[in-house]
């Protein structure tokens, strides 16, 4: 039996950073995919504490709420900093990245591209703090000298934004180098190039 079980929809959504951590760290886990038909039927939704997914099971511990799951898993996998100081800095970076993710997901749910131009204009301001952090941190990561929860969140956003705007990283040499290094990690590289990753949409497909 797998050590962990992730239950979520067949999209990247708010569970993809969880998947990245599990994949990169070589963790043994199962994933239960919930279709919209299954969710609308209501039985599973009614059984979830807050009526939401993802759901994450670690032995006899069942967790809901994405941030609680991410931080619990980061602690279990040893990617939450070497001490409380680093953990606090990881939280700071992760929350700033979630601000960008929220705007990005909102854009993905739009039925047309009317908001794309304005969104792209805001990217330099959004990503410059991470460019500055990486250029000044000799450890090569957002915090300290080891990959952390915040790095997985940043890597995923950079991958998505390269697709959205292939030239956007040209203005961020440190982020550009960082993404190449992170995507060269064997487990991340294998997952990023897999059909599993490529076939899973970021959000549910837009309906006309």
Describe the structure.
Keywords: Cytoplasm, Mitochondrion, Nucleus, Transferase. It is an enzyme of class 2 (transferase). Its EC number is 2.5.1.18. The protein is α+β, with helices and mostly antiparallel strands. It folds into two domains: 4-78, Glutaredoxin; 84-190, Glutathione S-transferase Yfyf (Class Pi), Chain A, domain 2, CATH 1.20.1050.10. Helices cover 56% and strands 9% of the residues. The chain contains eleven helices and four strands. A four-stranded mixed beta sheet has the order 2-1-3-4, covered by helices on one side. Helix 1 crosses helix 8 and helix 7 (123-136) crosses helix 9 (173-183). The chain is globular. The termini are far apart. The model has no long low-confidence stretch (mean pLDDT 93).
Query: Percent helix among the residues?
Result: 55-70%
Uncertain residue segments: none
Strand order of the largest sheet: 2-1-3-4
- Number of DSSP-assigned strands: 4
Name the overall outline: globular
Q: Which fold name fills CATH's third level, the topology of the largest domain?
A: Glutathione S-transferase Yfyf (Class Pi), Chain A, domain 2
**How many separate domains?**
2
Structural class: alpha+beta
Q: Averaging pLDDT over every residue, what do you get? A: 93
Q: What is the H/E order?
A: EHEHHEEHHHHHHHH
* CATH architectural label of the largest domain: Up-down Bundle
The amount of beta strand, in percent, is 5-15%
The N- to C-terminal Cα distance equals 42 Å
| Quaternary structure annotation | single chain
Instruction: Round the Cα radius of gyration to an integer and report it.
Output: 17 Å
Q: In this structure, how is the largest beta sheet organized?
A: 4 strands, mixed
